[in-house]
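Postdoc handover notes: sequence design on the structure in folder B. Input tokens:
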């Protein structure tokens, strides 16, 4: 096995400092990219799609659970499939506690084309609690571009709700998904961002001082 080179402590620190400078530049670039993302336009989508979840039939507006922002992971699970996508499963395995997203007026949900009983079996097997909805017999997946000619792909969409009007603000797929999973990285995809004053955000968006909204996941609402 070809292991990393062994060097002195001083050489290791020098190498680490060079790498740290690049990492900090990447962080600053990601902040600029998130600021640009918050300035992207949005497109209205049909809010009348029919879904089925754990509590029965529901609409896209209801999937927001009363919040303004919705993040949807498009999980590859077509009707009747005997295969469970390993990559999609790894993504859901890495999702954090939803209370932190909820505190930022954001809901996270998973959507697949399979009928809900098939989804429920996978959800139970994996021990997942994230809300997961079936879009079976609706055109949601096709309209979102994650089902083409009956073939599913994966991706992640962000939506904004203004009353009963729903807009799609962002979409990513492929390796754009694999770096996500922390609540911070997910919030960076939304129109409102982390909603902290250090962010470069358009006027009129919610913002407050950093850290003041952070809580342990069972302390929100106290």
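Designed sequence:
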């Amino acid at each position: 096995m070809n292991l990393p080179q062994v060097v002195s402590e001083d050489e290791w620190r020098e190498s680490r400092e060079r790498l740290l400078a690049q990492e900090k530049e990447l962080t600053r670039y990601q902040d600029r990219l998130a600021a640009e993302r918050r300035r992207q336009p949005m497109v209205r989508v049909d809010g009348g799609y029919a879904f089925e979840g754990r509590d029965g039939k529901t609409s896209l507006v209801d999937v927001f659970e009363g919040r303004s922002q919705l993040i949807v992971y498009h999980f590859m699970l077509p009707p009747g499939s005997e295969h469970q996508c390993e990559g999609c499963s790894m993504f859901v395995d890495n999702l954090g506690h939803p209370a932190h997203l909820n505190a930022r007026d954001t809901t996270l949900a998973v959507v697949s084309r399979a009928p809900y009983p098939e989804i429920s079996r996978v959800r139970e097997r994996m021990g997942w609690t994230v809300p997961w909805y079936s879009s079976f017999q609706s055109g949601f997946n096709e309209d979102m571009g994650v089902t083409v000619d009956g073939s599913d792909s994966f991706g992640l969409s962000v939506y904004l709700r203004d009353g009963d009007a729903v807009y799609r603000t962002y979409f990513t797929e492929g390796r754009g998904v694999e770096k996500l999973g922390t609540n911070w990285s997910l919030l960076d995809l939304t129109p409102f961002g982390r909603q902290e004053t250090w962010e470069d955000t358009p006027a009129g968006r919610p913002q407050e001082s950093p850290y003041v909204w952070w809580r342990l996941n069972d302390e929100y609402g106290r």
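Context for whoever picks this up: The chain has a mean pLDDT of 94. Don't rerun without checking with the PI first.
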